[in-house]
TrEMBL record:
GO CC terms, sorted: cytoplasm
Name the record gives this protein: Prephenate dehydratase
NCBIfam families per UniProt: PRK11898.1
Top-level taxonomy: Bacteria, Bacillati, Actinomycetota, Actinomycetes, Propionibacteriales
Gene that specifies this protein: pheA
Record-annotated site: Essential for prephenate dehydratase activity: T205
Domain Prephenate dehydratase: 16-212
Length: 336
């Protein structure tokens, strides 16, 4: 792996892509895979993976908020941030940042298998560890291993897993060891005391590439659309009404969750991912239905699914079905 400085946004003409840093995070791994998708005109076609330096310069940021604010200000062309983990669920700060402030859109997504290692200064033993630093999501996903193997240790939270390793390397950490990605030990020249310490071996995290608003890429047949629906008034059956906009048009939801709007107790919005592309009639009509009935709908983008699974369109909900129905209605109105 290259040294951390090799990933920072050095002076030069390369477009910049922010990510939740520091170097060595799972987000950097995702950013390297998503960098060529930032925009065809920005990417040179060089595949940024493994040890190969991406054509887009990567800029580590201390928080998700900082990374997305750089996109809003135009200082970077995009940002890669975590949005969902298969074990711990959504990343609230990312959902809230996308739901508020100047609009941003998701241009692409990637999933990264999550594996953890315990790293420390060379010579450290498991018995000597009393304090372990790591990100809250990593702590939750290694809880059983730590309880079994480090019963004397207490876990403290850091901004990222890599930050926990970086603190040990530069001498600023108060903890003895860090739970990080396997790559962090090489980045910070620390010793790996244990590998594969995650409690769930199939865990993975979903990351999204966020840019300023623009026309979404063309449909691929394997797409996802994200949005935030702000309800108008609280009343019985409100959630059912919202869901029916999708169900009646055969649009499957892959994620829906409520988030507080911050406007007061009981005021919530719904963060939604659905299968399909806004260019498809059934998705477009579902969004129009929400626009009519909700206080506000924030469109967060239509983009290719990371797993490439094509959307199954039910009979009667394809674009051709909608066109035929429009033609039928027009004939009735014209008295044909």
């Amino acid at each position: 792996m290259p040294a951390p400085d090799d990933h920072t946004a050095a002076a030069g003409p390369s477009p910049r892509l922010a990510f939740l840093g520091p170097a060595g995070t799972f987000t950097e791994q995702a950013a390297r895979s998503l960098a060529p998708k930032l925009a065809p005109k920005l990417a040179t076609g060089q595949q940024a993976s493994g040890d190969q330096k991406p054509s887009v310069a990567l800029e580590p940021c201390s928080t998700v908020t900082v990374a997305l604010d750089l996109v809003r200000s135009g200082e970077v062309a995009g940002a890669v941030v975590p949005i969902e983990n298969s074990v711990e669920g959504s990343v609230p700060v990312t959902l809230d940042e996308l739901a508020t402030g100047d609009p941003l859109v998701i241009a692409a997504e990637a999933t990264v298998p999550i594996q953890f290692s315990l790293i420390a200064r060379p010579g450290t033993t498991l018995e000597a560890i009393t304090l372990v630093g790591t990100h809250p999501h990593a702590a939750a996903q290694t809880r059983k291993w730590v309880a079994s193997n480090l019963p004397q240790a207490r876990v403290v939270h850091t901004n990222s897993t890599a930050a926990a390793g970086a603190g040990i390397a530069d001498g600023t950490a108060t903890w003895d060891a860090a739970i990080t990605s396997p790559l962090a030990a090489d980045h910070y020249q620390l010793q790996t005391l244990a590998q594969g310490i995650e409690d769930n071996a199939s865990a993975e995290t979903r990351f999204v590439l966020v840019t300023r608003p623009g026309a979404p890429a063309s449909p691929t047949g394997a797409d996802k659309t994200s949005l935030v629906a702000f309800i108008r008034t609280d009343h019985p059956g409100l959630l059912l009404e919202l869901l029916e906009e999708f169900a009646l048009r055969g649009v499957n939801l892959s994620r829906i969750e409520s988030r507080p709007t911050g406007a007061g107790l009981g005021r919530y919005c719904f963060s939604i991912d659905c299968e399909g592309h806004i260019a498809e009639a059934r998705v477009g009509e579902a969004l129009m239905g929400l626009h009519r009935t909700c206080d506000d709908v924030r469109f967060l983008g239509s983009y290719p699914r990371a797993d490439g699974v094509r959307t199954e369109v039910e009979k009667g909900t394809g674009d051709g079905d909608f066109r035929e129905a429009e033609s039928w209605l027009a004939s009735l109105r014209n008295g044909d």
